[in-house]
Every structure is written in C-alpha cells, then in structure tokens.
Model the fold of this input.
Amino acid sequence: MKKISSLLIVLLLGILAGCSQQTSKESENGVAAVVNGVEITKRQVEYLYERSAMPNMGAAESANLKRRILSELIRVELLAGKGKEMKLDGTPDYSMALYTAQKNVLAGLAENS
Done:
C-alpha cells in the first residue's frame, strides 16, 4: 500500500508539472533542466511556484522555493524513468493510480472553476 501511495504522489506531481501546454513562448522562457532526455522548462517551475508561493516572500525565499520546485521535478522525472525501466507502468497498480490521479485533478480543476 505504501508503494501505491508513493506512486500516486509521484504521478500527481508529474501531472501537475505537465498540466501546462507547451507553446512557442515556452522556448523563450528556456529550459531549466534536461532529465533522461525530458526538458523541464522554467515555465513549469513558474507554474508550480505561482501556486505555492506565499504573499510577501522575500527574494531569497522565492529563489529557494523555485530551486526546491525544480529539484522536486527532477526527482520525479528520475523516479518516473526508473519506474519505466522496472516496467511499473504496465502494472494494475499503475493503471489504477493513474486513473485516480486524473479524476482527482479534473475534479479539482472543476471545483476551482
């Protein structure tokens, strides 16, 4: 059960990171990191930063939060790559966790609209 919970958290973070559509402007914002051939853009970091930043954060706190967000996105991408290598994306647990995560994200977006 602990594996399912961890996988669900990783999936949710991955879904949140991928929620924004790639646009031509994204290339203007630049790439923050490349992990296993996958680009993590500054726009993705900003997207998550805007949803977690506290009002009146200082410049140092803001920079630290962005670094932590980027670090977490990198960690998630590395773990996702390892999970694919282990063929975990073909398991029933993966399918169920993905289904649940998608429904939770859609429900959350609908609730906040």
